[in-house]
Amino acid sequence: MRTPIIAGNWKMNKTIVETKAFLDEIKDFAVDGVEAVLCVPYTDLAIVKENIGDYIKIGSQNIHWAETGAFTGEISPLMLKELRVEYAIIGHSERREMFGETDETVNKRVHAAFKHGITPIVCVGEKLEEREAGKTKEIVKKQTIAAIKDLASEQVKQLVIAYEPIWAIGTGKSSTAEDANEVIGFIRQVIADQYDQQVANEVRVQYGGSVKPENISTYLNQPEIDGALVGGASLDPTSFKSLVEGG
Ligand code: PEP
Where are the Phosphoserine modifications (predicted)? Predict the structure, then answer.
């Protein structure tokens, strides 16, 4: 049985003051049988660590592969560990499209996260033109294989993958639950081919792309979908709680 995981991706939103106000609204919130994560900007991690209960886990939106060094503007796994970060989004399409993230750097970040006991949430997904050209499976297969290269099966079992069709992120256009379920089942098959079925059965694969309280249950009802990675709708505390409650 895979535990569903709902992760909020705040992207570049919320100052420390705004974060504190959000946290005041979710004090003592917890839902049985669902894991909840908030992936906040680096500048908010300390205030989240000081003000969040045990239930909601803390996530970052990236992680560098080196522990220290001349990498201006990057954040190392050691720094994140001190801030009680347990998850790191890796390879979000905004990083791939705007900041030069590649399949190779995604794989380096995934290895670094595991080395330091941080669980990667690896994002994969196709662009609109790739979907229209019938290349969705080819793209997600390539991204998935590259991201998990040289991982031990015990690591793959702990991995979280977020299938996020790029055309559905922040656009209000979501994939149908059936389509998302099919692609996610395919991702699981790719992992089974690389490792084995038992490993593939343990990997959690979320859907992401314009998920809201009003539509989340349609995704969670699908057999292959193990939760959601949510941008815009995770910024409001009432909406975030409703997402974790399953809509
Ligand atoms: C995301 O940021 O990963 C995302 C899916 O955003 P949104 O929910 O706003 O589409």
Answer: 210
Q: Is the pTM of this model over 0.95?
A: yes
Q: Given the cut 0.95, state whether the ipTM is greater than it.
A: yes
Q: How many residues does the chain have?
A: 247
pLDDT per position as a tens digit, 205-236: 999 999 999 999 999 999 999 999 999 999 99
Residue located via tokens 């680096």: 42
Query: Measuring from atom 7 of ligand 1, which residue has the nearest CA?
Result: 231
State whether the beta carbon of 118 lies less than 6 angstroms from ligand 1: no
> Does 215 belong to an annotated binding site?
no
Residue 52: φ, ψ to 5°: -105, 150
Token pair in block for residue 165: 């069709």
Question: Strand, coil or helix: what is 183?
Answer: helix
CATH 3.20.20.70 at 5-244, yes or no: yes
